[in-house]
Design goal:
Elements lengths: L23 E2 L1 H12 L8 H10 L4 H17 L4 E4 L2 E6 L2 E7 L4 H4 L15 H5 L5
Parallel strand pairs: 1-4
Antiparallel strand pairs: 2-3, 3-4
Helix pairs in contact: 1-2, 1-3
Length: 135
């Protein structure tokens, strides 16, 4: 008697945002978006001062805030705690985008912290098998 294969789990379809709900975008989220998406790093300041520094550098803070608000609104409309877009993870809390995390490093940032080469795998011995569960 043959068994029927179990159905593969299907990804949940992304629900829309028909009501146009928007999330509030915090200064911290705008700052982190500028860092991760635009590569503009502001060090040694609180978030409010960093926003002023971004404006002084000619960064359109309003456009960033609008984009985060729209993308975050999709998460708020669907009761999500995060939204992934453009290789970034927008973290949502209390109907606001509170921070932006990099899902993967941008190509131009990967060369900044070169990692040392991985060590060669060591040869296994009989002791590895005999003492496998004795940590």
């Amino acid at each position: 008697m043959s068994r029927a294969a179990a159905p593969e789990p299907q990804a949940q379809p992304q629900r829309g945002n028909p009501d146009g709900i928007r999330a509030r975008a915090t200064d911290h989220a705008v700052r982190r978006y500028a860092e991760w998406a635009l590569g503009v790093w502001i060090e040694g300041m609180d978030d409010g001062a960093a926003i002023a520094a971004l404006r002084a550098r000619g960064i359109n803070v309003g456009a960033i805030r609008r984009k985060l608000s729209i993308l975050g609104g999709l998460g708020v409309a669907n009761d999500a705690t995060a939204v992934t877009a453009d290789g970034l993870k927008l973290v949502i809390s209390d109907r606001a985008v509170v921070t932006v995390l990099a899902k993967k490093l941008r190509q131009d940032l990967t060369s900044l912290n070169e990692a040392s080469a991985a060590p060669a795998p060591r040869k296994r011995t009989i002791l590895d098998r005999d003492y496998a569960g004795h940590d």
